# Entry
Amino acid sequence: MLTIMMIGIMLVADILILTYLSIKTDAGFSDLSPEYISGQIQKTVRENGEVQYSISLQGMERIDSFDGFAFLMDDAGDIIWSYQLPEDVPVHYTVKEIVQFTRFYLNDYPVYARIVDDGIFVVGMPRNTVWKYQLSFQIRTVNMLLTTLPVLFLINIIVLLVGPFLIIRRDARRREMQRTSWIAGVSHDIRTPLSLVIGYADELLHSAHGCAEVQERAQMIENQAIRIKTLVTNLNTSNKLTYGMGVWHREQVLLPALIRETICDIVNRNLDEKYDISVTVSDSLERFYVKGDAELMKRLVENLINNAISHNLAGCEIRVSLMQMGWCFFKSTVLEISDNGCGVSREQLKKFRTSTKSDKLPEHGLGIRLVRQIASFHHWKVRFFNNADGGFACRVYFNHALMQKSQS
# Structure
């Protein structure tokens, strides 16, 4: 993956470097062209009809800078004017020789010719300074190249840019699947021993009559085992929601019944008497149905209640309310779970309200993060705040486009 990206970067860098060096090394060569040098030639006709040619100082300096030469040849093939002409260059040429050197080399000198009024003007360079070769292609071949090369170049650029991204994404997806499978496997494997621990602790709790110390320890073992089980379940659910690996069902769920069922499950786990849970449901919402996954909804309610329990060790009142807020056509159905405990700091509330992606467990565990994920999965709005009692509260606003009330 990294190798492919480096190769692409190196190819682009090589092209840019070669282009720069080509432009730099070829700089000024166009000023030695026959078109430019012939423009520096002055023609003088004397009174006796004799024609003389001379070159400007600028033209001489240009030719000298390349150690080149120039000459003018008439229609008969004779050189009638020259500048810095090498000794081994002939002064007369046949038609065959003219055709040959205008296409290739003149005695191994690279030369360039231009037809002017008085004949043919030729500019030459020193040997072994210019690679010169004449290429010819059919028009349809040139048209094909002009059409195909830009497309191929664009495809190559897209492959170099998109290819590494797709490979990275594929590898990341593979790692996500492996991570999800691993967590799901651990969750499954740990469930049986945890169930045994919880079962034996509960049995010990009810059989140790008259021994408060044993009962207290049994209760502690059961609570911690339930806590581990909840943590593993939250981790598995959060991971599946994050990477879209879970199989979730969208069905009509009677929300008041689900809330009461979830609270009964929590209370039946030998909930300490210092925690008091109350449920209030508006009469108009007793037949309130929400479309979503029932297990995720139970997890949302359970996590919020467990959060109040685990962060108020001295005990607290936990209030669960399903109500309507707002007025007229702007009413919203809201589930509020709050407590009168110690609440949370402003910094912690800010973290709750800010969507962040991190593999680190937040201060309040996975519970609050999972509440946000479940609400986001169902397209519900969620809000965390400290209530008037100073305790912590959460409100879930249900999207009316995704809920229905029973007509019965």
